[in-house]
Amino acid sequence: MPLGEFDVIARYFSRSSTRGDVLLGVGDDAALLMPAPGHALVAATDTLVEGRHFLPGTPADAIGHQALAVNLSDLAAMGAEPAWALLSLSMPHADESWLADFADGLYGLAERHGVALVGGDTVSGPLVVTIEVLGFVPPNAALRRSGARAGDLIIVSGAPGVAAAGLEELQSGRATFESKDARVRRFLRAEPRLALGRALRGFATAAMDVSDGLLGDLDKLARSSGVGACIDLERLPLAPELEAYPLTEQERLVLHGGDDYELLFTLPADHFGYIEHLAKAGGCSLRCLGSMVRGEGVECRRDGAHVNIAGTGYDHFAS
Fold first, then answer.
1. Fewest beta carbons less than 10 Å away: which of 14, 28, 134, 319?
2. In what order do the strands lie in the sheet containing 262-267?
3. Tens digits of residue pLDDT in 41-83
4. How many angstroms from the chain centroid is the CA of residue 151?
5. Range 153-307: architecture per CATH
6. By C-alpha distance, which of 256, 242, 131 is closest to 192?
7. What global pTM score does this model have?
């Protein structure tokens, strides 16, 4: 007998939560939630569409993980602590095996970060996943894109470009979803930098996550802050997973690749040593790329000379 809508919710998306701030969760018309006293509420939502954000045939657990990870990354970029999530799931039919794997991927990441699924909706249609995440941050400690100042260092976490390489391996057929290739694993299961985001409170002058390409996202941060940016290409973090590529390809992947969900932030120079120490203690590397400057736009240099870099960040509606 086919599963009905309410069977799907009860069987796969009604796991109990230990959070005391959930007064009423899944199963009613709406959730009842108790905001943390003295904190601002932070909200983020993202939609993943099959064929646009994930490839047809992507394992369901990876889709569940990614759908939540992209939202948690947005909260990380605000320095926030995640709390609750709502799920809207459109799918062609209620495949029990797919649903079980999707829920495992979603809850696996949610439980690691103390996130409770508190409601949502399920409908019949094309495969589309929308998640909204809510969290908390002290009102005066929230990170924004708009505070960078001339002279601040430009820092990026981790190894951007690896996930983009994994996507290209899948698209070309050189790798499968079951591959042990680290590039593919990174694309399917990026990890949000929540601990780093919280550590940046009171230190970073501006921050955002890298989802649409490092160069394009840096331009967004610079525009929001009303300053320019200058990066040195020799400082780019070139991951071991990319060392077999020609240098120009490594740079392309790092500058224009998305889906790594690393943090890009600016910082006064005298804070870098302390933040780098905290990041390393949490297993996260940092790389200084250059500095913010007076003016506008992003300039790339190699050995001190200006370099023209073609291409922009990802845009859903670009022709």
1. 319
2. 206-210, 262-267, 153-157, 286-293, 228-232, 298-302, 305-307
3. 999 999 999 988 899 999 999 999 999 999 999 999 999 999 9
4. 27
5. Alpha-Beta Complex (3.90)
6. 131
7. 0.92
